[in-house]
Amino acid sequence: MRKMRKLLVAGALVVASGTGCAARGDAPAVPRTASGSLEQLARTAGCRPDIQTDAAELRQADCGTGDGRYVLATFATDRGQAEWLDAADDYGGTYLVGRGWIAVGADRTVTQLRGRLGGTVERSSSHHSGRSGGGGREEGPEGHGGHH
C-alpha cells in the first residue's frame, strides 16, 4: 500500500510541475471549505474528473488541461490523507487541503481552485520532510491552518 501511495503521489506531482505563480493580489475570495465525494468536489471546481484511482481508501482524478491541470484526491480517513500529504511533501509542490480531500497543481491553479473549493493552501520545498521550515501555509476562512 505504501509503495502504491508513493507512485500515486509521484504521478500527481508530475501534473503539479507546471509553471506559474499568482501574485498575492490575484487571490480570489475564499469560500467555506467544500466537502463531498470526488465527483461533487470536481463539479464544484468546474472539472470533469478523469478517474485514475478508484480504491476504498483513495480516489484520485486528473482535472483540467495544459497549465491549468491538477489532481484531485479524496480519502476515506484523516489518517490516509495525512499519510498521502506526508509522502507528497518529499516531492515539494502546492496543495489545496480540505477535510477528506487534496488538490495538487501549479501554484496559480491551486490559488484559483481555492476560490471555488475553499481549503488551506500548503506549499512545501522539494526533498523536504515534515512541514516545519521551508514550507508555507495559508489559513482558511475557518481561522485555522492545516487539516484535521
Features:
148 residues; 7-stranded antiparallel sheet; alpha+beta
Question: What do you see in this structure?
Answer:
Helix content is 31%, strand content 24%. By secondary structure, it is of the alpha+beta class. The chain has a seven-stranded antiparallel sheet, sandwiched between helices. The protein is globular, with a radius of gyration of 14 Å.
Cα radius of gyration in angstroms: 14 Å
Q: What percent of the residues sit in helical stretches (DSSP H or I)?
A: 25-40%
Order of helices and strands: HHEEEHEEHEE
Strand count, sense and barrel status of the largest sheet are: 7 strands, antiparallel
Beta strand count: 7
Q: Runs with pLDDT <50, length 5+?
A: 14-24, 127-135, 139-148
Decide which structural class fits the backbone.
alpha+beta
Overall mean confidence score, pLDDT: 78
Total helices: the number is 4
Strand order, sheet with most strands? 1-2-3-5-4-6-7
- Taken as a percent bin, the fraction of beta residues is 15-25%
- What is the CA–CA distance across the termini? 22 Å
Shape: globular
State the gist of this model:
The chain has 148 residues and is an alpha+beta fold. It is built from 4 helices and 7 strands; from the N terminus they run ααβββαββαββ. It has helices at 2-16, 38-45, 78-89, 107-117; strands at 50-54, 58-63, 70-75, 93-98, 101-105, 120-124, 136-138.
Strand and helix map with partners:
Layout: H1 2-16, H2 38-45, E1 50-54, E2 58-63, E3 70-75, H3 78-89, E4 93-98, E5 101-105, H4 107-117, E6 120-124, E7 136-138
Antiparallel strand pairs: 1-2, 2-3, 3-5, 4-5, 4-6, 6-7
Helix pairs in contact: 1-3
